[in-house]
Amino acid sequence: MRPISFKVVLLAATSFILTVLTLVVGAPFIKTLRKNSPIWFFWLVGLVFSTAAGPLWFFIAIPWLAVGVSTELELRGVHYLKSAFLTTILLTLLAVAGVLVLKLTGTNFETQLEQILELMVSQIKKMNPQSQISVPVFVEQLPSFFVGSVIMILATASAFERPVHAIFRLPYNPPQTLGDYFTFKVPAWAFWLSLISMALMVLPVAGSPWVATVGLNMVNIFMIIYFIQGALIAEYYLRATQAGLLWRIFVYFIMMGPLVLGIVGVGFVDFWLDFRVRIQKLLSVKREQE
After folding, report:
1. Cβ(24)–Cβ(9) below 8 Å
2. Is the dihedral of CA 60, 61, 66, 67 positive or negative?
3. Residue 126: how many CB atoms within 10 A of its CB?
4. Looking at the predicted structure, is the pLDDT value of residue 207 above 60?
5. Distance between CA 125 and CA 144 in Å, rounded?
6. Which of 36, 46, 131, 203 could form a disulfide with 64 if both were Cys (CB 3.0 to 4.6 A apart)?
7. Model confidence pLDDT, tens digit, residues 213-239
8. C-beta neighbour count of 154 within 10 angstroms
9. What is the pLDDT of residue 187?
């Protein structure tokens, strides 16, 4: 049986703190914890932390389930994209089933849900005081928030798992299924589906206002996916140019702040421009000139 060292305990505590504070940033720590601790310890810690979080249980349970399930699949040789897709579908079905069970049993979960949404809205407004989001608006976009959060959690876990291993001085063995992670590109069918979702959001449909809501939720999800693709293009460039630590920190800081929509745009237009091919060509020309 794999021993539970002080590093593992510290990693578990760090995972809990960062996940409560940010939802997403704790994901690579959770993934590192799963790979360096017994399976029973990982799920027991997740259960204890989720229970201890009280009204914030959602911020622990969802990342823990998402990263835990996807990591189990990857450890069994499932490709990271297939793993992410299956995990997202599974967690969405569990969420829907949970809501249905609560409704059928007459459980009053609306009050607790409203408390969670109020916490989320307050956190968003703290990060962006200009935001006009409110609880009613959030309710309409709750499906896309849930799915988008799961996608972002899984992407962050895979992207930053290696640095977390380095911080805790743990051996890192990347799965073969992750070899092409930084060359990820939205497939053509998904690109055209994103255009259809934009049309659903803006085109009025008489007697069916729900169509615009569906379109809005789809657009939100695709914005997350295009942000991930744009961020991977930026990381591809940083790796290709062997950028230093300070430059990397600066780039990621502005990507997560003032350039968020710009990064989404980069991911979107990459369908036509294929930035990574252009980066390689520019670097090849530069090497020839030197």
Report:
1. no
2. positive
3. 9
4. no
5. 19
6. 46
7. 888 899 999 999 999 898 888 888 887
8. 27
9. 86
Q: What angle do CA 258, 261, 262 make, to 5 degrees?
A: 85
Distance, CA of 55 to CA of 36 (rounded, Å): 29
Mean pLDDT along residues 159-185: 78
The C-alpha atoms of residue 265 and residue 96 are separated, in whole angstroms, by 32
177 pLDDT above the threshold of 60:
no
Task: Phi first, then psi: give them for residue 5, nearest 5 degrees.
Answer: -90, 175
Considering only CA atoms, which of 264, 234, 260 is closest in space to residue 247?
Answer: 234
The Cα 255–Cα 267 span in angstroms is 12
- Tokens 């989404």 correspond to 264
What are the CA-CA distances from residue 169 to residues 30, 52, 172 (Å)?
Answer: 15, 29, 9
- 């300070």: which residue's tokens? 246
Helix axes 260-273, 188-202, angle to 10 degrees: 130
pLDDT at 28: 92
Q: Which residue's structure tokens are 């990574």?
A: 276
